[in-house]
Amino acid sequence: METGRLGLVLAVMGLMCPAAEALDNGLALKPTMGWLHWERFTCNTDCDTDPTNCISERLYMQMADVMVKEGWKEAGYEYVCIDDCWPSHSRDAQGRLQADPNRFPGGIKKLADYIHSKGLKLGIYADVGKNTCAGYPGSLGYYETDAQTFADWDVDLLKFDGCFLDRSLIAEGYMSMSKALNKTGKSILYSCEWPLYEWPIKQPNYTAIREYCNHWRNFQDVFDSWSSIKSILEWTASHQKIIVPAAGPGGWNDPDMLVIGNFGLSHDQQQSQMALWAIMAAPLLMSNDLRDICPRSKELLQNRMIIAINQDPLGRQGLRTVMDCDVWERPLFGNRLAIAIMYKQELGGPRRFPISAVPGWKICAPQCNVTQILPQYKELGVQSHQKELVLSVNPTGTTLLTVTPLSGDLRKQHWNDTSAQKKHIVL
Ligand code: GLA
């Protein structure tokens, strides 16, 4: 693939680029932000008895309305995304996918127009195989037709699932759809599940994945539970050496949706998901009911300081650097560093944690400006490297900080040094 717009933008900005080239469609220069229906609304097609929660055009229109009215759009959440169960069970006479006529009487083009009229973007879902995971028509044999249909409808993002295809054909299928989207001439953000479906047979080629996809799911579906969040974090940390170098402007690892604002996580656990998704430079795709969300969850999801970490222009994904109290660190633009300390023990009260146990704290010699963002915002001010700063971390919660060295160059001293980074990866 030729060096395109993205390469140019990065060169101009003088930023560090990940080794592999990103999909050259000019999209996802920062992790995607928006809303996706799956975890909260799954495959509820029962609009007769449950019209408020069924998968219908009404759901996306209402979500878009709230996103504009309640500050979500202003906070950066932009994409309103349809997941599985939107189509009719059969294609039309021309072989094109069509929305279920009862649940989407206006059709997808009209829905896209509505979403665009709100200044937002519309995402849609399809599958590389014979059927979608929920059994609706898949795109196998129809990649070009479906890509063109989505372009004609003015859709802005495609989530492409990987059910019902022989795993040895997964890579080829995802690449073909990427090419088909490119051929339409419309920039459509391409969200893949390629590595998730390929891992059972071999280690996926992340250089290729980054060239063809804007983000990619690596691991199982998120559920509304702490055990699910923990398993995603554990998988990510234990594969960071393979997956972290692939992330950067234009292409991101996708640990799946934010489930903040639902039923299964305590507030501390919701803070942990938000903090760690920011450290992982993850797409922030909420799956919750924005029409009815508790104020604390809303405040957390709209926290500008956490969103700024997630959207940081340096575009480097963070790493887990210490296990026990898990420490995760992410280098930020302007020689700053984000640090998340997560306390996994589910017994007892808050744990005291000395900041000197964070490997990156060494950049704070002689001094750093320290801001605590979670569990509560607190300016901790100028802290000297010598004097011990002790933090408090709640069980299953996360203490999130940014540190800014008052002299010295973080990238030179710490993260730009390959051997230092390698050392972190194997820790
Ligand atoms: C798979 C995907 C989920 C969701 C469902 C829909 O399980 O990983 O994110 O799209 O299919 O059926």
Automatic annotation (TrEMBL):
Pfam families: Melibiase_2, Melibiase_2_C. SUPFAM superfamilies: (Trans)glycosidases (SSF51445), Glycosyl hydrolase domain (SSF51011). One of its GO terms (biological process) is renal filtration. It comes from the Eukaryota. The keyword Cell cycle does not apply. Residues 1-22 form the signal peptide. Its EC number is 3.2.1.-. The keyword Glycoprotein applies. Residues 315-397 form the Alpha galactosidase A C-terminal domain. Catalyzes the hydrolysis of glycosphingolipids and participates in their degradation in the lysosome. Homodimer. Belongs to the glycosyl hydrolase 27 family. This is Alpha-galactosidase. The lineage of its organism: Eukaryota, Metazoa, Chordata, Craniata, Vertebrata.
